[in-house]
Structure formats: structure tokens, C-alpha cells
Amino acid sequence: xxxxxxxxxxxxxxxxxxxxxxxxxxxxxxxxxxxxxxxxxxxxxxxxxxxxxxxxxxxxxxxxxxxxxxxxxxxxxxxxxxxxxxxxxxxxxxxxxxxxxxxxxxxxxxxxxxxxxxxxxxxxxxxxxxxxxxxxxxxxxxxxxxxxxxxxxxxxxxxxxxxxxxxxxxxxxxxxxxxxxxxxxxxxxxxxxxxxxxxxxxxxxxxxxxxxxxxxxxxxxxxxxxxxxxxxxxxxxxxxxxxxxxxxxx
Length: 250
Description:
Elements: H1 2-11, E1 16-19, E2 22-25, H2 27-51, E3 56-62, H3 64-81, E4 85-91, H4 98-102, E5 108-112, E6 121-124, E7 128-134, H5 143-149, E8 151-154, H6 161-168, E9 179-181, H7 185-193, E10 197-202, H8 203-211, E11 216-217, E12 224-226, E13 228-232, H9 240-248
Helix pairs in contact: 3-9
């Protein structure tokens, strides 16, 4: 009774008419009652939709090499297991992929370990292994001569992978300093094969082209390893398909 009277005082309306026979709703009370019933119905509908297995959609964003070689193949098996799950993939070699999570446009991101924010959860993946490659016609030339004469091909100006590779093996001072850009592995590989320039590819991406003889290793089997992580916001209640994606992506 006290709570009802407190509510009546707060909204400056009488909700019940009181008599010896009991209490009955006023017109204002009936309006509030209809509203409460609507809220309960909406609550039930919302909870039903949230717990439903229909229309579960997840988006994963990450660099092209690891997405194509590992993430997408791993996710295919998860989709087969959870038929209601819809997966979207955004392949991007741009920096700051973490913004996709912060803006809510994706639920997972694959990014360098050092870029993982403290407020997010993560799983360290197998490292990306980069090799330095070029056209078969460069096989008889010395590496120092190649670096001095050939352009480096990267995704864009912000892509520092090839330069980090050269620095790792004390080769940066031998490079002539020219770079060109192609925003995609397929385009870069075509340029490498044509002898237009040199650069780095992940070992997973490069392997079939090395085996076919279309590309060669320019620095023997020296690798640059990049530690990558799968990143997501913590969830108090994690759906089974969410757990399975985390388990499957390695």
C-alpha cells in the first residue's frame, strides 16, 4: 500500500479508488496497467529473441593473409555445426582494426598482440611467418644487388612488414628506398611473378607459388614472425557458437 501511494504521489494521479468493498482502478490506473502489460509482453518477446538460435550473426575482421589461410577455413566447420549461425568476414590490411570492435561493427578482430587493449579478452594465435620473395629471374643475383635495384611492393604506405623484415636481418641499409603499393595479395603476387619488385608474404600464402617455381625465396628460409591474437569483448553469458569460434580459430 505504501509503495502504491508513493507512486501516486510521484505521478500526481490517483490509481485506485478505495472503499469498504476493496479497490478498483481509476482511468489513470487502467492506463498504467495496460502499459505494464505491454512492457511484460515486450520483455518476453525480447528475451525470446535473444535466446533464440535464429538469426545469430557474427562478424570477424582481420588481415588478408591470416583470414584467408586460417580464420575462414576454421569458421567453415563451426558454421556446419551451428546451422543458425551467419558469419560475415571483413578482410582488411589497414591498421587500427580494433576500432571495428569499439564501434560495434564486428564481434571479433584479428590483430597484432601488442595492439590488444587491456579491457578486451584475447587468444594468442599461431604467429604469422613472413618470407622475402621475388621472381625466378632473380635467382642468380646477389641479395644486396636485388635490394639496391628493386622496388619493394607493400599494401600501402602504412604497411611496414617488408621494412621490418629487412631491419630484422640488417638489410635495411642495402635497400634502394623505393616502394610501390598494391592493396591485395593477388595483385602483389602478380607483380612479384612479373619481376616488378620484391617483398614479403606469409609462408602460408607464398608456399604454393614457391613450390610451383613461380616465386623464389630471396633470403633462404629466414622468417619474420608476427604474433597475432583473436580479440573480443568479454561476455558474461557466452553462446556455444561464440565459444566454438574462439576454440576453432588458432
